[in-house]
Write a structure and sequence with these properties.
- The chain has helices at about 15-25, 35-40, 45-60, 80-90, 95-125, 130-159; strands at about 30, 60-65, 70-75.
- The longest helix is centred in the C-terminal third of the chain and has 34 residues, at about 95-125.
- Strands 1-3-2 form a three-stranded antiparallel beta sheet.
- The protein is mainly alpha-helical.
- It folds into three domains: about 15-75, Orthogonal Bundle (Arc Repressor Mutant, subunit A), CATH 1.10.10.10; about 100-130; about 130-159.
- It contains six helices and three strands; from the N terminus they run H-E-H-H-E-E-H-H-H.
- Helix 1 crosses helix 3 and helix 2 (about 35-40) packs across helix 3.
- Residues about 80-85 have low confidence and may be disordered.
- This is Tat binding protein 1-interacting.
Length: about 160
C-alpha cells in the first residue's frame, strides 16, 4: 500500500498572498490562476491561490484582465527609475539641453561620415575576388600553361 501523504499545514492568508505576490513579481509575466497554482507545485491549494490573486488584485498589487471566463493576472509595473528619469529631465535647463543636442548632432555627423567610409571600404573588399575563386582560376591557368608548353614542345619536334 502506498504511504499516506502527510497533510501540509495550511498557510495563513497573508503568507499565501505574499508567496503568490513574490512569485508573480519574480516571473514578471501574465499568468492565470491555474498557471500560478501549477507553477507553485502544490505549495498552495487551488482555492487559496484563487483567493490570494483576487485579494492582491483588489488591493492594487496585481493587474487583472478578463478574457471570456478566464482571468489573467500580472504584477504591477512600478519601476521607480522611470519616474526619477522624468523628474530629472524636467529639472535640466534649456541651455543644457541645447548643448547636449549640439553635441549629439556632432556625434551623428561623425558617425555618418564613418558609416560612409566603411561602406566604401566594404564595396572595395567585395570587388576583390574571393580566395576560393582565385585558387580555381590559378588551377585553370596552370592547366592552360601546361597545354601551351606541351603543344609548343610537340610543334618543335615536328619541324
Amino acid at each position: 500500500m502506498a504511504p499516506k501523504k502527510e497533510k501540509q499545514q495550511t498557510p495563513t492568508v497573508d503568507e499565501a498572498e505574499s508567496k503568490v505576490l513574490a512569485y508573480m513579481i519574480s516571473q514578471n509575466r501574465p499568468y492565470s490562476a491555474t498557471d500560478v497554482f501549477q507553477n507553485l507545485h502544490g505549495a498552495l491549494s487551488r482555492p487559496v491561490v484563487n483567493r490570494a490573486l483576487a485579494a492582491l488584485e483588489t488591493r492594487g498589487q496585481l493587474d487583472a484582465k478578463t478574457f471570456g471566463k478566464q482571468v489573467i493576472y500580472v504584477a504591477k509595473q512600478t519601476d521607480g527609475s522611470l519616474a526619477q528619469a522624468d523628474a530629472g529631465a524636467e529639472e535640466r535647463s534649456d541651455e543644457d539641453m541645447a548643448a547636449e543636442i549640439e553635441q549629439l548632432k556632432g556625434e551623428d555627423e561623425a558617425l555618418g561620415k564613418r558609416a560612409a567610409r566603411l561602406k566604401t571600404e566594404l564595396a572595395e573588399v567585395q570587388k576583390t575576388p574571393r580566395t576560393e575563386d582565385l585558387v580555381s582560376q590559378n588551377a585553370e591557368l596552370d592547366a592552360q600553361v601546361r597545354i601551351f608548353w606541351s603543344r609548343k614542345h610537340v610543334n618543335k619536334g615536328l619541324r
